Amino acid sequence: MTSRPLTLFHLSDIHFGLEDVAALEWVRSEIAVRRPDAVIITGDHTMRARHREWAAATRWITALEVPVTINIGNHDMPYFNLIERFVAPYKRFEGMRSLVEREIDLPGLAIVPLKTVRRWQPRPNWSKGWVTPQALDRCLAALDALPAGTKALVSVHHPLREVGTHGTALTRHGEAALAQLAKRGVLGVLSGHVHDPFDIAEPTAQGPVRMIGAGTLSERVRSTPPSFNELTWDGARLEVVVRNLEGVPTPAMRIDDVPPDAMPPRAPGEPVAPVDRVPAVDPPVH
Q1: Which among 6, 206, 247, 279 has the fewest CB atoms less than 10 Å away?
Q2: What is the per-residue pLDDT across 143-194, written as a single tens digit (0 to 9) for each?
Q3: Full set of structural domains in the chain with CATH
């Protein structure tokens, strides 16, 4: 048991370059006032990994003055410079390199990262997730090294779902990774990428794993207004509340399945949050 409840803020998909300025100012104020024990940002800090976008992301994140860990998102890899993408894909993280995939150890609770992006993939769509054996081994070794009795949350960018609503492969080797995480009894897997929040018990061969997705803090909304997750761990129960500027209740903000991507739902059967804030037109991409 923890000596006091721990508070974590789970942010994702800020997409500097298309960030929601009002939402970010509100979140920064909440962090300054509430002083969470940690902030987890599960990737896509920029829109197209431009230098000016990375500079803005670095200024905002390094000014938070609380423990922070960040995951790499597919939008964070060099987009226009393929040479840099292959030779030095993380060069633009330099201003906050110490935060990238940083394990955070709190009383009775650890946040352990798992990388789900690759500089290239043997399939046309490189925006989707891929768990390499090396990345999974690093994550599992960190989990296995935790002191007895310490619980863990695993942070990723892509949801660890092999197939989505329409049978589209999302994260290669995600199912096997989830099974290994279930075997180790993790409290949950924190992710982003799809721009709508969710809280789903995902079945695996080793038992269920709680998959917790955060929404976006950008203008690229899918079916919910900009938001972040506030997590509270009291040593026995993990509570997750979806926070947003409009005060929409948590149940109305959540989708009940993992969509194939972050684009607004346009076809029958795609998951839509009860608040149903699907934009009339697709959001900008540049």
Answers
A1: 247
A2: 999 999 999 999 999 999 876 555 555 888 899 999 999 999 999 999 999 9
A3: 6-253 (3.60.21.10)
